[in-house]
Amino acid sequence: MSHEIKMSVDEMVSFLKYIEKIITELEVNMKPAIENLNNIQFYLDGKAKKNMGSYTDANNRMLELNNLYSRAFSVVNGIMNSMIEEDEALATEIAKGLGLIEE
What we know:
- The protein is an all-alpha fold.
- The protein has one domain (9-98).
- Helix content is 79%, strand content 0%.
- It has helices at residues 9-38, 41-44, 49-52, 55-97.
- Helix 1 (9-38) packs antiparallel against helix 4 (55-97).
- It is elongated, with a radius of gyration of 23 Å.
- The mean pLDDT is 82.
């Protein structure tokens, strides 16, 4: 039985663009909002800490999302770059074989 991995360039590009939008959304909207929440005097004074329990941990977890999406972007981008390099190498070999470029 033969196993093949099929990749759609359009899907990968679409995926990269989608991840970029998410990262931008997290950077532009979520990160400043969480930083503002963390600086509310009510929480800084500790008046709500016993009621909120894991409030800070939850906010930190939300901030970790950006790192996870950034890593996902790096992996997919790395795959795309590898595909481009392989494609260029293959194109060069074909061109050499056809005598279109000198070896």
